[in-house]
Amino acid sequence: MRLVMKFGGTSVADIERMHNVANHIAREVAAGHEVAVVVSAMAGETNRLVNLTRRAQITDKHEYDVVVAAGEQVSIGLLAGILQSKGIAARSWLGWQVAVHTSDAHSAARIRSIDAGRLQTELAAKRVAIVAGFQGVSGGVSGGVSGEDEAMRVSTLGRGGSDTSAVALAAALAADRCDIYTDVDGVYTTDPNMVPQAKRLAQISYEEMLEMASLGARVLHTRSVELAMAHHVPLLVRSSFASPAEDDIIGTLICDEDDIMEHEIVSGIAYAQNEAKITLLGVDDKPGIAARIFGPLAQGHVNVDMIVQNISPDSKKTDITFTVSQDELTRALEVIKAHEKDLGIGSVNTAENMAKVSIIGVGMRSHAGVAQKMFDELGAENINIHVISTSEIKVSVLIDADYAELAVRRLHAAYGLDAPA
Amino acid sequence: MRLVMKFGGTSVADIERMHNVANHIAREVAAGHEVAVVVSAMAGETNRLVNLTRRAQITDKHEYDVVVAAGEQVSIGLLAGILQSKGIAARSWLGWQVAVHTSDAHSAARIRSIDAGRLQTELAAKRVAIVAGFQGVSGGVSGGVSGEDEAMRVSTLGRGGSDTSAVALAAALAADRCDIYTDVDGVYTTDPNMVPQAKRLAQISYEEMLEMASLGARVLHTRSVELAMAHHVPLLVRSSFASPAEDDIIGTLICDEDDIMEHEIVSGIAYAQNEAKITLLGVDDKPGIAARIFGPLAQGHVNVDMIVQNISPDSKKTDITFTVSQDELTRALEVIKAHEKDLGIGSVNTAENMAKVSIIGVGMRSHAGVAQKMFDELGAENINIHVISTSEIKVSVLIDADYAELAVRRLHAAYGLDAPA
Questions:
Q1: CA distance to partner chain B, nearest, from residue A128 (Å)
Q2: A99: contact with B, CB 8 A cutoff
């Protein structure tokens, strides 16, 4: 089997933890697998480097990338050295050595392609490739008038980009699986801090995982899940703090929907607190009005989530309700105030301290009455629903934040997600 | 004019000092010069990284180099960003980007060649090139059966290698001068801490500078001076702490002997304390005996300095005297003891607390009586000479350490080196 293993900053925070990581790798090598490893910078190191660029007031993203990419360079060298000391053949690979080609959007670059040739040779020779996460190179395309390569510059993928590095590498190497080692042992049906009965999911589809992102259990970067989905790379989320000797796979496998034998109707309950609701009353009911409202909000960097428009056929006015994060409420209201007359807004209502609760599951597609059950359960608890929004595999409701915990617990039990006592 | 400017770790120890460095660079750019800059890691950073490799018990020099080269990556990015913030076009260059090709002797690699093409273009476009010192790449030679490049690995030149990087870059770019910014404002006729009358030399030849290395004023790495001599790169040693507004060149120019108009007979007085003398009495006087004594000492990593052999034509025995650093005396005696019978050594005398005092000057070549004057001056102070050794441009004597300061002061005055009162 060919494996990509990814370890984040807390997993390689010091030499002792790197030894633990090396033992995880040693287990997979001993099992006869071909192994490539993607590593983040040691915990705290990227922050230190970013701080230096701030104090130096660096504005050139190219130079920012040169500075912050140094963190991964240190961790890959150390980890390769530690593996060698355990008698395991290994070498470090920087972004330009692989090479990982990215876009020119320095500090938030996107991976365009990965030259897999050299690493293929390494893996075939049973040498572990320790690859720097988060970094690549822009430029470097052959051709042009001079026939010379365009100069390659160090680029980075933005914070948390190591997950994306790992998935992209797994796709390029046609790896059988990409194991993401993290500080939790998998993806849960809901936040275990809120619901002690929450269970670890053995499997979950990419689509569900993407909807779960708002769960607050930010186990994986959305971008890396999207990339895994596009390239059909099975992702295994597992704990780096578990004993490396343990080779039973404990974790959550994120994979194609078709690879999951039996679907629960609802796989998990997500929630987001600190939401605010804005209602624009008496808005001119004209074509294009939504675009004229939400355009300025987007330009003002306000993230709008749920949107509901009440259609009133008997009037030339309509009401539009939407939600934003509570942090962005003031900014949103400023933007609206600036466009108030222009948009013919009658008045504005706001409500704070709201929470969004969502049920997520691909099984919903083939089952009727799933949403109705949700409304019934909340009604039975006398919880008022302010806004409803639905997608193919998710139903979200906006409720008073005070009832969020009660709602999540009730729904978790109602959809049969509670772990056996 | 085309300039290479080199700044060491203390000059870029923090963001504030980097601003000072940027002002030095800005002055040269404003003067219309083409400027390439070589920078070390921020003070303390290389030590921190080396410590990490020790704690990780890294033995692979390739991985050691990957880790320690990260320090320069941070400083070039920061300095390039700071220059940009002052409105000066600049970009950073890593070893592999230039590229600086080195030997495979990782952690102590030697520069083989530097591709100057890209930097030439940069300089012609009046963009300051900020180049990482101390690092390069091994491998990367085109050809071979596959037609593919051999993989390039990050290499480092060993501690203090940034001076060598700067001189090699100046040679590759055919720079008019290489300015080495340091924490002293030049090379002095002798240690100013010992002799307050010591003067800064305006000029000194490469040969003299190499002999001065033992002065304890370790201003420049020997290797970089040798390289500058081989490629005729004029080196200017100057202070990075001087006001960057000051554009009068205050410093010491190290250049070809022929470029110095008027030579002093003696340019400087060097001294080395903590020397020990070893005399082997009654050694078999046979061909090859010296090699048989000093071979084992070299293998035992004992650095032998002055060597004197008394030829005694009337006997089959001879006496051999040599000096070593006091730190290495015990080790040297252990080596000798192990080979005592083998070499037919009669007995061994040792003397500690010795000092070596040297007069240095290319003018000696054309002037007679320079050494005699030295012996006369020391004799007048009743200073006993234990060993004498001479080269074309240096006369060294071994004396009791107690008289070292007196000897240096007397000789400094006698050869007319004292600054006017």
A1: 14
A2: no
Q: Report in angstroms the alpha-carbon separations of B120 from A150, B5, B6, B170.
A: 15, 15, 18, 11
Is the ipTM beyond the 0.90 threshold? no
pLDDT, tens only, A174-231? 999 999 998 888 999 998 889 999 999 999 999 999 988 755 446 788 889 999 999 9
Place of tokens 């993407």: A210
Confirm or reject contact between A321 and chain B (CB < 8 A).
no
**Residues of B whose CB is below 8 A from A73:** 66-67, 69-70, 73
Q: How many CB atoms lie within 10 A of CB B151?
A: 15
Tell me: the pLDDT tens digits for B27-84? Answer: 999 999 999 999 999 999 999 999 999 999 999 999 999 999 999 999 999 999 999 9
Nearest neighbour of B85 by CB, restricted to A57, A92, A151: A57
Structure confidence at residue A148 (pLDDT): 46
Q: In what order do the strands lie in the sheet with B34-39?
A: B90-93, B128-132, B34-39, B2-7, B177-182, B235-239, B252-255, B203-205
What does A7-63 look like in DSSP terms, one character per residue? E-GGGGSSHHHHHHHHHHHHHHHHTT-EEEEEE-PPTTHHHHHHHHHHHTT---HHH
Rounded-to-integer distance, Cα B99 and Cα A261, Å: 54
Does the distance separating the beta carbons of A67 and B73 come in below 8 Å?
A: yes
pLDDT of residue B141: 59
Strands (E), A80-134: 90-93, 100-102, 111-114, 128-132
Q: At B147, is the pLDDT very low, low, confident or very high (cuts 50, 70, 90)?
A: very low
Which domains are delineated in chain B? 2-257 (3.40.1160.10), 268-414 (3.30.2130.10)
Mutate to test the interface with B, among A51, A65, A74 (most CBs of B within 10 A): A74
Q: How far apart are CA B332 and CA B336, in angstroms?
A: 6
Token pair listed for B47: 């030590």
